[in-house]
Write a structure and sequence with these properties.
The complex is a heterodimer of chains A (282) and B (311). Chain A contains eleven helices and two strands; from the N terminus they run H-H-H-H-E-E-H-H-H-H-H-H-H. Chain A is mainly α and 282 residues long. The chains are: A mainly alpha (282), B mainly alpha (311).
Chain lengths: 282, 311
């Protein structure tokens, strides 16, 4: 395998993990039209709690516990808080969720500190070796989880009756109520599913990316851009956005050093979004 | 009357107050400037910007860089800084209006720009990179004069806001805030009005950033361009009262004093600032979206009415 192929495959796998990170936002923002500006903070929150739980439990149990925590938390967060925000304008939601994000950011800084952490898994230092090139297991596993979860979500929303009911409540709350669906319960379910995806994404992103509480703003922006590019409610489109980021990042690291590669990724993204606005206007 | 007294106190303060209270007052003035210039976009035109710290940070970097690397005099730096901030924010608003971006996309655009600036300045070795950029020692002795510059530009802008708000241009901007579609259909050019306010907002932001940066004498990219700093701009205007003349000033003083009080704890609990700001903003946006200014106005009116009645 040549160097460029290995670079490309690494980029694709990283990209799938980023798409996994954006999946939770794609469900809450794309399907429910709720501008969850605290998405990055929720991702780092899940990573921090998972890193803490890993001290006491094995990895599989931690993942299971986090899924339970976040889906229950998302369910009640919707019923107590988000439900009342859905009638507000987008700007108002932005401001409210930005302040929720600031609260979470401050709380994470106070509780977990500002050290650079990552989730130490048993396969963190193993890699597939092809001649002189390597592909990390951590990236392979995160990318695989991302790909499978996104395809699962796509089928859930588009090919099952339950998923169609979910979409219907998200698109027209009262209309769905009229045909006999329990809109409130179903929307709470969508939000808790999005929180569950966020929990998984936070854990698996943190297996190959080190993080601090302040990584959150970067993750929020990245997820929003991926969702913007994929279009509203298009779950499979998240994969394409993620691929663009991942491949762009890994090829940009050939030419520039450090965090400058993200600058190139942002420029690339803005350019693609610009083209999309010029030629694919709804 | 009250506002004249207020400006008199601000002007006379460096001769009577201590070093510490002066630094607190300049922080409050800087916050008030941030809030006012943020409010020019949101409170007047209805455009929500979440990356407003970028223009302040840009002003700090340009002024410090020109003073240290090119040793330009101050009176040349001032128009240059204003020009840079104005051109950048003006062009962003213009592009978004030209492409007819929706509100979410405009907000994301401002966010992308500020994040790009953060990455750029963190990696720019010429301007200090991650380690920050410092003023040379000679200029630190005259740092008190930058307080006057900031206060003066604050006064000038305050008066021009007061005039602008009453003028027809201010009314045009308010019409674009209330309902862009109706405003456009009666012949208001969203592009021109909003770009004008964007230019003013960016320029004023960069200018106040420049004076504050020269007073401070140092700048760090992760502080100047962070999302928390953008959140402060937003919090100042919204807590004070968005769309009002005195609201951001009130909010600026309020947040600066709260922040100073909180920093007593933040030695033990770093990140407490962010927590408190977010908490205040959440409470205000959920329970008093008009901010604290109308609330205070009500109390003021009640109090004076009572005085008049007792007379």
């Amino acid at each position: 395998m040549s160097f460029l192929t290995a670079l490309f495959i690494n980029g694709v796998l990283t990209g799938f993990s980023y798409s996994l990170g954006a999946l939770g936002l794609s469900i809450s923002f794309g399907v429910m039209r709720f501008v969850n500006f605290a998405h990055g903070e929720f991702l780092t929150l899940s990573a921090f709690i998972a890193a803490f739980l890993l001290l006491y439990f094995p990895f599989s149990i931690v993942v299971f516990l986090m899924m339970v925590f976040f889906s229950l938390g998302g369910y009640y967060f919707y019923l107590l808080f988000v439900r009342h925000l859905l009638d507000y304008s987008n700007d108002h939601q932005f401001i409210v969720m930005a302040s929720v994000g600031a609260i979470l950011l401050g709380a994470q800084h106070i509780i977990f500190g500002c050290d650079v952490k990552n989730i130490a898994v048993s396969w963190a230092y193993d890699a597939l070796v092809f001649e002189s090139n390597t592909i990390d297991y951590s990236k392979l596993i995160s990318g695989g989880v991302g790909l499978s979860l996104i395809i699962f979500t796509h089928f859930l929303f588009n090919y099952t009756l339950f998923g169609k009911a979910l979409l219907a409540t998200a698109q027209n709350f009262e209309g769905a109520e009229l045909i006999g669906l329990n809109s409130k319960r179903l929307q709470a379910f969508i939000f808790s599913f999005s929180a569950l995806c966020t929990a998984i994404a936070g854990i698996f992103l943190a297996t190959f990316m080190s993080f601090t509480p302040y990584t959150a703003s970067f993750l929020t922006l990245l997820s929003f851009m991926i969702v913007q590019l994929s279009g509203f409610g298009n779950i499979l489109g998240v994969l394409i956005g993620g691929l663009l980021v991942g491949v762009g990042e890994s090829f940009a690291s050939l030419y520039v050093e450090g965090s400058l590669k993200y600058l190139i990724v942002f420029f690339l993204f803005s350019f693609v979004l610009f083209l999309r606005f010029c030629f694919m206007r709804k | 009357m009250l506002i004249v007294l207020f400006f008199f106190i601000i002007g006379a303060f460096p001769f009577i107050g201590s070093e510490y209270s002066l630094s607190l007052l300049i922080l409050a003035l800087y916050y008030a400037c941030l809030g006012q210039s943020w409010d020019l976009l949101k409170g007047y035109c209805g455009l929500l910007s979440l990356g407003h710290a970028f223009y302040g940070g840009l002003g700090i970097y340009i002024s410090l860089g020109l003073v240290v690397k090119a040793s330009l005099p101050i009176f040349l730096i001032v128009p240059l800084v204003f020009f840079c901030g104005a051109i950048l924010l003006g062009s962003i608003v213009f592009i978004s209006e030209r492409l007819k971006l929706s509100d979410i996309h405009f907000t994301l655009l401002t966010l992308i720009v500020s994040q790009c600036a953060l990455i750029l300045f963190e990696n720019w070795r010429f301007l200090g990179g991650n380690g920050g950029f410092f003023l040379s020692k000679g200029l630190l002795s005259i740092k008190k004069s930058f307080y006057f510059f900031l206060a003066l530009s604050f006064l000038i802008f305050f008066v021009s806001w007061a005039i602008l708000k009453k003028s027809s241009l201010g009314l045009l901007a308010f019409s674009t805030r209330e309902d862009p579609k109706v405003a456009e259909s009666v012949g208001v050019s969203l592009k021109i009005v909003r770009t004008f306010f964007g230019v003013l907002s960016g320029g004023f932001m960069a200018l106040s950033g420049a004076f504050y940066g020269l007073y401070q004498g140092s700048v760090f990219p992760d502080q100047a361009f962070s999302n928390v700093q953008s959140l402060v701009c937003l919090a100042v205007a919204i807590i004070g009262g968005s769309g009002t003349l005195y609201g951001p000033i009130l909010g600026g003083f309020f947040l600066a004093f709260i922040g100073e009080g909180v920093s007593y704890f933040s030695g033990i609990l770093p990140g407490f600032h962010t927590f408190i700001y977010g908490f205040l903003l959440l409470i205000i946006t959920l329970y008093a979206p008009q901010g604290i200014f109308p609330f205070i106005l009500k109390i003021y009116n009640k109090f004076f009415r009572k005085l008049k009645q007792s007379e």
